[in-house]
Structures are given as structure tokens and as C-alpha cells.
Amino acid sequence: MRDWTRYTSSDEDSGRWQQFRFRDGDIVISTRSKSGTTWVQMICALLVFRTPELPGSLGQLSPWVDHTVEPVEDVVARLEAQRHRRFVKTHTPLDGIPMDDRATYLVVARHPLDMAVSLYHQGDNIDRERVAELTGVPYVPRSRPRPPVHDWLVEWTREQTTPEEQMDSLAGVLHHVGDAWSRARQPGSNVVTVHYADLLDDLPGEMHRLAERLGVDVPDAVWPGLVEAATFASMRSRAAQLTPNTLGVLKDGAAFFRSGRSGTGAGLLTPDELAAYERRVAATLPSDVAAWLHR
């Protein structure tokens, strides 16, 4: 019997987690879209294998369990066959997947406005006809051009919806982070929060912190190569292996790694628009969580 919320979208279904069988040491990477998912998957791969030379593509090694572009039976079978420590991806909040004591859950957050800008640009890179072909959901072309990024972002900050209806909405982002923050601060928690800005500011330090939380011992001589392999420039140079595009749902794999910067989202809004956004966040999240999220 499932005791967690079922989140669905046109190409996601968290109900697929019912077929996932946990093992000791499993790592679940839970993020909102465009918040550092692939980055943390790569860090986990480097820590698990202790070498920049991965034994396969990142998408095959660390599949997205909820993604309906591939039959769940195939995803589960591939995971069951893995003999290394497993690390899997989800864009579902933690209240929408099983919480198992044998696993560690890494929840990655990013400034919501930066995340939204990246999401906007990512929207132009998705081959929606290919997604429709894989999911069986009919493809409906846009009836009008997308608005400019500023207009789209303002609407995103104002949209009134629920996390269940739109996981990548502002409401969905704030719920995902707030729920994880609360869980991570409970005694003996197996939830770890990670901030995109910290990965930018101190990648070696964050990798060491995650290795400690995951109980991974990496020889000192190996560390420099692992950190270099986790840099944005290095990952972008290996886009063919690291981009989550095994089934061809992206038009351009290299464009997936667009810029990796922080701070661009807030700069698109006027002072009044930014103040309205901040008021909405303040009404939803405790002040300490909001301060951490907007660092």
C-alpha cells in the first residue's frame, strides 16, 4: 500500500517507484528541474567509481525512475542488474516517493528565479514530438509563440497552482525545498540538502561533505581528478556521455549545459516584481529556509 503522494505530469509518474526495490546504500537524488540534478549525479558517480572514467553513460548508470519515456520494467531491470552502489534520479518531492532507511536522499536546491530561467531555455531544447512518441501522450503544437523570458518569468512567479498540478511551478519548488529542509533537520535523518550556489563556490568542499555523508572513502591522490571531472567546463565537454538524452528527447545535448551561472533570474525583474515574488516566498517558507534558498 502506497503511503505517499502520487505526482504525475505529461511525462512523469511517481507511482513507478512502487516497483523499485531498495538496497542498503542506495542514493536517491531528488531535485526540481534545472537545479543541479546532473551535476550531483556526476558527483555521485565519481564518488562511487572513484575515477573520472565512468563505465557507461550517466543516464544509464543513474536513471530517472519517474520518467515515462521508458517502460518502468526496463528501468527496474537495469537497476536490479547493477552490482555497484546505486544512485538514481527523481524530480519528485520526498513526500511523493518511498522513504527507506537503507537509502540516503540528496535534495538539491537552486535559487528559484535562476532555476526558472534555465527551465525556460530548456523548454526550447526539448523535442516534444519525440517525447510524445515515447510516452504515448499526443503531441499538441504551441498555438502561439512563447513570450519573452521576462514576461514568462513574471507569470511563473504569479501563477496560482499546486505542487501536485505543476511540480516545476514556484509552488512546487517551495514545497520541494521546504519539505526536504524539515526532514533533513530531524535527528538521525537520511536526507541531505545541497545548494547549487555552494557547488559553484566550493566544489571540492561540497564533494568532501557528500563523500562523508555517504560514507565514501576516496584516496587523497584521486581527489584532484574527481573534482576536475565535476567542473562545469569538464562536464560540458563530455555532454554526449553525461546529458540525460539516451532516448533522444533533447534537440542539442551540449545546449543542456547552458551557462551554469547564478543570479541572472532576479536581474530580469523590476524592483516591484521582485518584491512581489519575495512576499510570496515569505508567505510560504520559514525565514531560515528562504534565506538559505536565496543565498
Helix/strand layout:
Elements: E1 8-9, E2 12-13, E3 27-31, H1 37-49, H2 58-61, H3 72-81, E4 87-90, E5 104-109, H4 112-123, H5 128-135, H6 149-158, H7 170-184, E6 191-195, H8 196-201, H9 203-214, H10 223-229, H11 232-237, H12 239-242, H13 271-282, H14 287-293
Parallel strand pairs: 3-4, 3-5, 5-6
Antiparallel strand pairs: 1-2
Commentary on this structure:
It is built from 14 helices and 6 strands. It has a single domain (8-293), classed as P-loop containing nucleotide triphosphate hydrolases (Rossmann fold, 3-Layer(aba) Sandwich). Strand 1 (8-9) and strand 2 (12-13) form a beta hairpin. Helix 4 packs across helix 6 (149-158). It is an alpha/beta fold. The relative contact order is 0.18. The strands form 2 sheets. A 4-stranded parallel beta sheet has the order 4-3-5-6, with helices on both faces. It has a two-stranded antiparallel sheet with strand order 1-2.
